[in-house]
What does this fold into?
Amino acid sequence: MTDFVSEPDRSSLLRPFYPALDGLRAIAILLIFSFHYCRSTWDIEVWRWGWVGVDLFFCLSGFLITGILYDSLHRDDYFRNFYIRRALRIFPLYYSFWLVLLLLTPLLHVSWSHAVLAMAFYVGNFFIAGAALHHHADPSLVFFHSPFHGGKTHTLLINHFWSLCVEEQFYLVWPAVLWFVRSRRGLLRLCLVLFTILPIARLLYVHFQPQMFSQGMLYFNTFSRADGLLAGAGIALWLRGPGGSKITLRRVALGLTIGAPLLLASSLTLEKTRSGMPMNDPVISTIGYTLVALAAAGILLLAIESSSLFTSFLQMRPLVAIGRISYGIYFYQLMLLEVVYSRAHFLFLKSHHLLVMIPVSMFLAAFVMAKLSFRFLESPFLRLKPLLAPRPGAINDPSPDPAPVLLTPEAR
It folds into this structure.
C-alpha cells in the first residue's frame, strides 16, 4: 500500500528556501578545495575523492533550478525571469574577471587563444577534452608575462571553470525542455531515460574507443557529466508529485547515500587494473559518475528533511558562512595554486609546517576574496532581482549583503 504525502508533509518538504543547503554547498566546496590543496600535501586516500564535490554542486543545481522552472511554468515571464535572475547571479563575478584580464592585457601581455576565449563564452569544457589529445591549446591556462620579473612567463589556472560551463549550458537548455514537455510524469520519465543512457553511452565509448579514452574526453564533457544535474532534477519533480512520506523519503535517502558508494566500492574492488586517480578510472568514468550522482541525491534528500540531525549540522554558522559565498570561493581558489607553489620555497618554514600552512592560508585567502566579492560586486546585482525579475516567495539564491552605509559626520 503506497504511503502518500499528506499536506503537512508536502508543505515541509517543498519550501522556497532550504536553510541546510548553504551547509551542503560548504561541504561541496570543502571537498573540492581539499582535492586541489590537500591531495599533494597529505597522501591520504580521502583527499583523492574531493572531486565529487562538483557532482554535489551539480545535484544541487539540478534540484533548485528544476523546482524553480516547474513552479513557474504558468507564468508569462517564465523565460525572461529565469534568465535575468541567473545572469544577475552568475555573470557579475564571471565577466568582471574577464574584463579585468582584458584591461590588463597591454601590461601583462595576456595570451588570448581561441580556447581561452571559448572558456570565456562557457564552452571551454569541450576544448579541455581536445587539449588532452593535443588538438589545440589548453583553455585551462592563461599565459601572461610579469613586468616585475624580467618578463617571466606565468600562468593563471582556470581549469575549474569547466564546471561553470557545464552548469551554464544546463541553464541554457533545460528551461526549454521543461517548457515543451510540461508534464511532471513526462519530465520524470525523460530524466530516468537520460540517466540510464549516460552510463551505457560511456561504457560503449570506452569499449569501442579505448585509444581515445582519457580524463578529458569524459570527465569534462557536458553530455557525459549530466548525471548529477538529472538526479537533482528528478528529486525536484518527484517531491512535487504524490511521492512517499517523510519516512519513505528517509529510506530512499539512506538507501542512496549508503547503497551507491557500496556498489561503487564493490565495482572498484573487482576491477583488475586501477589508474592513479579515481576520477581517471575506467569504472568511475562509466558507471561511477552515475553512482556518485545517486549518492549526492541521497545526501540532498537528507538535507531537505528539516527534522534530521544532519540538517542541524548543516545549519551550523561556519558552514552557512562558507556555503553562502561558495560560488566565489570556488571561483578564486584554484587561481592561487600556481602562485603558492612557485613562491613556497621563499617561505622560511619547514616542510611539515608548509603542509599545514599552505591549505589553511589559501582557504582563508579564497574566503576573504569571495566575501569581499560577494559584498561589493555580487550583492548590488542580487538586489536588482526583485526589481527586474520578481518571483514571489522564492529565495533560493543567497540573500545579498546589505548595502554599505555611508555615515554623515553628524551620524558618526
In short: Residues 1-8, 404-412 have pLDDT under 50 and may be disordered. The beta strands are 141-145, 153-157. The CA atoms of residues 233 and 375 lie 30 Å apart.
